[in-house]
Amino acid sequence: MDYTYYLIQAMNGIQYGFLLFLVASGLTLVFGIMGIVNLAHGAFYMVGAYLAYWLAGATGNFFLGVAVGVPIGVVLGLVIERLGFVHLYHRDHLLQVLFTFGMILVIGELITILWGDDVHGVSVPAMLAGSVALTDTQAYPVYRLFISAACIATAGGLLALIRYTRLGMMIRASASNREMVELMGVDVNRLNMAVFGLGVGLAAFAGMIAAPVNSVHPTMGDDILIMSFVVVVVGGVGSIQGAFWGAMLIGLADTFGAVFLPEAAGVVVYALMALVLVWRPSGLFAAR
Q1: Partners of residue 141 on adjacent β-strands
Q2: Model's pTM, two decimal places?
Q3: What GO cellular-component annotations does this UniProt entry give (predicted)?
Q4: CA pair distance 83, 79, nearest whole angstrom
Q5: Domains of the chain, residue spans
């Protein structure tokens, strides 16, 4: 048995899990704090990938493109929240679903107008283009290690924001009791705008750093959206801790499912979700 092969698959699963966490954490924040079912979250991931493709080509520097693209993603989220989502907070979830589904179509059409339907690629930065030798015949790409490191750093920053800042305190309080937070004088409208901008920024950043290892195309947000919802359901709606461990679990299950059960790889993740829901219907780390 080649244990190095399984080590590589485990590293791939963990890296995929970190990427899922970035997307799912924004999704669970938006739903847990704002009560919005945001089907367009995968489209923001796609927007991030296209921003990386466009800005890296325009500047000739991938890292500069990411540095410029993340603020663009956050501002995009702030604008969309003020123009659209602000009218949906007290509406039925069906209207939220219809609005966000419409956004998927609009964003997809804008992407097609700006960049066409072709599949694009983003080059791995030269300084991260090498591999780390694991054995004489096995190596692991440095850029995938960079993705994991970037996700860990972002997750740490998000955890510090949630636990140790005034904004994080308001986010946690709003997730527990929104009405009480309003009665205490917190401007919930501004809080909602900040949370949505943060969520879009996280999704866009995930799309940017994933662009060099994935193809950039107009439907790339669909799969990540479905997997992110699975992560949120498994981890528990509104729980950042749940999003992290759910993402790790789903990332490893998806990767090893393709290794051990290639003929049923698409079923493994959903079977795991079903088992978790039978055991804990509210998710592994649902707020009590």
Answers
A1: 131
A2: 0.90
A3: plasma membrane
A4: 6
A5: 21-219
